[in-house]
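User: Can you help me understand a structure? I only have the sequence.
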Amino acid sequence: MERPFLQSALRELQVFLRSPRFWATFSAVVLIFWVTGPYGTAERLASAPRLGFWLVQHAAAWSIAVVTIVLVNTLLLRRVPSLLGRMAIGTLIAGAPVGLATETISLATFGGTPTVATIAQSIASGLVLSALFCGLTFMTMSSKQAEALSPAPMPIPEATEESAEILLLRRLKPENRGPVLHMTVADHYTEVTTSRGRELVLLRFSDALEELGATAGLQVHRSHFVADAHVDRLLRADGRLAILMKDGREIPVSRSRTEAVRSRWG
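Assistant: Let's start by predicting it. Here is the structure, written out as tokens:
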């Protein structure tokens, strides 16, 4: 599994863990279940144990749903263009483990023997909970995108004069800030490759191009930018012009940019 995938997934998890909306919704759901005491918990558990029961239930269920949906969203980022489609797939995958986890906690608390009916009911409840989290994902992603598209923060003190002119670097983690070598579109993200690493940035490709500053290079395709320093040579691939970058990857050149590419690097 590539490091950028893990970094992106961890970043998505951090977004939810830092979201006030997420914690407010979680607290509200636990409070509702504690007060109403559904599934017979009001009759079988006193107030304090009932709060503990539903807190553990929802902590386990939401943790599984969070991790599953975030991993699915990150893994299918390029394969499934629609965020709604990725969230639906994540909801379906998370439903079964969420249901089994809640059923296990119930059996550990009240005892009994699991049956097909109780397991099916738990999985159905898991799907409902996963769907709720899917809705939260949409709201959180919208907030995240708005934040990402807002004016970039001030450069860090140790940034060089050259780096300070490239606004895009301010969006990268400090350890990845270096000369930009390549950029490509990844759904609503832009994948930025620098001399120090690779990172997904929640930013439109057109906006990322505007933040490149004085970086020497060329947009060679509607979804690719290549810096001069990262070009190895030009080649033909399937009858069309392509660029072999110094990391071994081949980048297609659109027909409308063929002459500009040949003139610059031919």
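Now, to help you interpret it: The first helix runs from residue 3 to 17. The CA atoms of residues 209 and 225 lie 8 Å apart. Let me know which part you'd like to focus on.
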